[in-house]
Amino acid sequence: MVELVTIAFLNVFMSIGQAGASARHEPAAGAAVASPANPDRPTAREELIQLATAIQRADYEDDRPGLQRLFESAGRFSEQPELAPYAHYWRGFAMWRRTVNGFNDAVDGRELESDLLIAIDEFQQAAKLKPDFADALIGEAGCEMNLIYVHRNNTDAMRKDIVASAQLVKRIQSLAPDNPRFLWIWGASLWTRPVQAGGSQTKAFEAYRHGLAVLKSDLSPAESGLAPGWGEPELLMSLAWSNLNASSPDPTAAEKYALAALQIVPRWHYVRDILLPQIVKAKSTDGKTSSLESTQTPKM
C-alpha cells in the first residue's frame, strides 16, 4: 500500500494498514464467526482477515521484514478452496508493497525483481481461482508497471513488461473500469505517458479524482471481509504528490490532500515523514519545489 520514488507508471501504491481505519479501507478483523466448538478461537476466515489487516499496516509503516513474515503466514490458507483466492491476493499484495517500500529503501534491484515476480505469481493464482477477481488483475498490472522501472536498463525485458501491463489494463477496463484501485495505477501511467501515447498530467488528475468520486458515490454498506477495500488514501496521496510535482505546482492543494490521507492512515510513513515535509518546504519557498522535479514519475 508507498513513498515517492521515480518508478515508471507508478504513483502511489501504499497500503492501508491502520488498526483504526474505517471498514472501507481495511477489513474488519471481527467479521468472521468463531468456531462453535471453540467460540474463543478464530475461524480460518477470521485469521486470514487479521493477516490482511496486518499486511496493510506493515505496508503503510514500511515494515518490509513484517511483510515477508506475513506473506509466509498467509500461505497456509491457500489450500482452502473458499479462502484460497484471497490468500493468494494478500500474499501477492504483501510482496508487491514490500517492493514499493523497497524502492524508497534503496534495496538491490535483483531483490526487487524477485519480490515482484513472486507477487505476480500470487496474483495470477488468485485470478485463476476467481476469474472475475478484478483486483487480482490490478495487482498484477501494478507489479508489471513496477518491473518497467526495474528493467529500465534492459530494453528487451522492459518491452515485455510494457506489453504485459498493456494487456492487463485492457482486461481490467473491460471488467472493472471504475475500480478506484485501478484508477490509482492508471493515473500514474497517464502521468508518465507522452501526450502522443494518450498521457498527460491533466488526464492523471482526472483519473485520481474520478476514483475518489466513485468511492463517494458508492452508497452500499462498507464491506468487511477479505475483499480489497483500499484506495481512498492512495488516491489522496497521489493527488498530493501530483499537485506538488505538476508543471504548475500547487503546494497548498498538495498539503490539503496529504493531510486528508493522514486523517485516514495517520501512521503512513511515506506521507507523514517524506511527502508532507517536502510540501511544507515547497510552501516556504513560495511554491517552488527546489528539491523536486516536475518530470519525476509518480509513485504507486
Can you tell me about this structure?
The protein is mainly α and 300 residues long. The protein has a single domain, classed as Alpha Horseshoe (Serine Threonine Protein Phosphatase 5, Tetratricopeptide repeat). The protein is 60% helix and 0% strand. It contains eleven helices and no strands. It has helices at residues 44-60, 64-73, 84-104, 109-129, 134-150, 155-175, 180-192, 201-217, 232-245, 251-264, 269-284. Helix 2 (64-73) packs antiparallel against helix 3 (84-104) and helix 9 (232-245) packs antiparallel against helix 10 (251-264). The protein is globular and about 60 Å long. The relative contact order is 0.17. Mean pLDDT is 86; it is low at 1-35 and 287-295.
Kindly estimate the percentage of residues that lie in beta strands according to DSSP: under 5%
* Helix content range: 55-70%
**What is the overall shape?**
globular
* CATH superfamily heading: Tetratricopeptide repeat domain
- Number of domain units: 1
Weakly predicted, low-confidence segments = 1-35, 287-295
Count of DSSP E strands?
0
Task: Kindly report the average pLDDT value.
Answer: 86
CATH topology: Serine Threonine Protein Phosphatase 5, Tetratricopeptide repeat
Question: What is shown here, in short?
Answer:
With 300 residues, the protein is mainly alpha-helical. It has helices at residues 44-60, 64-73, 84-104, 109-129, 134-150, 155-175, 180-192, 201-217, 232-245, 251-264, 269-284.
